[in-house]
Structures are given as C-alpha cells and as structure tokens.
TrEMBL record:
Protein name listed in UniProt: UPF0725 protein At2g20620-like
Domain of life: Eukaryota
Lineage: Eukaryota, Viridiplantae, Streptophyta, Embryophyta, Tracheophyta
InterPro entries for the chain: MS5 (IPR006462)
Gene: LOC104731522
Coiled-coil boundaries: none
Positions of region (Disordered): 1-32
Pfam families: protein_MS5 (PF04776)
Amino acid sequence: MGNGMWKQEARDTTEEPPLINEKLEDERPQESTYIKPHVWNLRREDDDYYNKQRADDYYKQQRADFELYGPNPRIDLFGRVGLHCYNLQKGTNLKSLKVLNCDSWITSLVTHYIILEAMDPIGNSSCEFETQVRYAVENIDCLSAITTRCKLKPKTPEEEDKYYEWNKDLVDNFFRGDMPEWMREDALTGRDKLQYYEMKDSELEENEWLHLYAELALFSKWQTKLNEMESAKPFEMKKVVVRTKENVESWKKVKAENAIFYISFKTRCGLDFNCIIRKTTDGKPDHFSLEVKCLM
C-alpha cells in the first residue's frame, strides 16, 4: 500500500471541489417523507459545476445538510483521528465532545475539514479544535488516512500562514512500502525481539486511542455499514503488540511517532478481528498518517 495515493494527491485547501458521479451512502436516519438528495449525489453534467457559484452552492447545501441531519458517523470518526494526532504531538489528552461543523469534498480522495468541541479533563475546560483529514481505500480492506491540520482555535496569525503538504518521501524507509503481514509466531522471542513489545493489560485500559485504531479497522471493511459499527462497540482489547525500528523503552514504543501495531480485539457482538496499524509522520507540524489493514 505504502501511501501510493498520496504521491500527487495533496491538494491545497482552497481548491474548488468538483462534484463527481460518486455516491457516499448517508447513514443518518431519514423519515419516510421525501428528502432532497445529499449534495454528494448530484451529478456533474457540464463544466459549470467547476465554477465558483457552483462551489459556493455546494458548501451552502453541505452545511444545510449538516444543520438538518447532524454529523455523519464517519465525520465524528475522522475528527477523532485528527484529535488523536494533536494529543500525540502535544502530549495532551483532549476528548471529543461533538462535531460543530464540517466541509467535505472528493477528488480521488475523501477530504474532511472538521471543527469539533473538545474537552480537557484537566480542569474540565472546553475548546474548539479544527482538523483536516484525507483518506482512501487503496486495496480491499486497506485504508490510508492522513492528517494535515490539527489545531486549537483561535489560531495565531503565524499558525494561520503555515500549511505543509504531506511528503511521503520524508517518512522513515523502515515504515514505507507495502503494508506488513501479520507478525511471525516467534516475533517476541526471535532475532528481532527487541523491536517488539506486548502491551500490558493496564496499558490497554489506559490508552483509549487503541479503540480508535480498532474502529478504523472496522471502517475499512464496513464503510457502508456504519450503524453496524456503532452496535459493535465497545471493543474488548485482547492483545496488542507494538513494533518499532529500534530497541527503545516500552513506553517510548507505545508513544513513538513511527510504529506498527498488531491488534487483536473482539466486538460487543462477539466477532474477533486482527488488524495492523502503521503509524508514521513526515516530521512536519500537524502531520500524521495511519495505514490500516483489517483481518478476520
């Protein structure tokens, strides 16, 4: 997989979104009366869809849908992905409360620009948080998601001016290329055992973001079954093994910017899954990548 989709696909956030002939299933409950199709379902019939007026209408309709229906579960999911990136980089533990607004568009990727309300458990103070996350499924059951913006609001003028496109060439070579297979049976005792660490039960309970990784894994398989995903939670973390490039202390492996997670978990309805999560960064502020491969 190896982030191939990101080679030429990082687009400026000011790019006008084309409306393409692609349907993203809207999982929000709808009443029996007729409801105007979601903006994603509109078809491009001529080049007028690319002009500024169409783009403005597009965003107005999208925001109107948001006001009417509330956020789609996938918006909440990727909002939490961006918040997880911020927590990792800043050493914080902010919790997502609710999505306040979202703009989404499709090129060859799906891009979400999300504003959410977050809460800091220290002092129980709330704040507004913004993030931009792009994702695509390159192969069956394999998903790549990249965060290119994650900031608290309001931003300073200096922060406003700084935006960097994702650069896969800056990712450590050890974590590039095709996604790895499931770890070998002797991973924890073999030649490279110092690269691996099995998380303790107490660590599985403390690190709630592991459930986010499991949720992303299910999303890669059940994108059109978001209601089933919701009913599958909470998950039971059965076993998590972390691999890093070098031998470092166990707590540093868990928090490392570049690491591979081998996760075994069970859903509330009793289904067992294994997933591989490759977490990487290109070293730029706000940048964070999660590549996901889900196995039954």
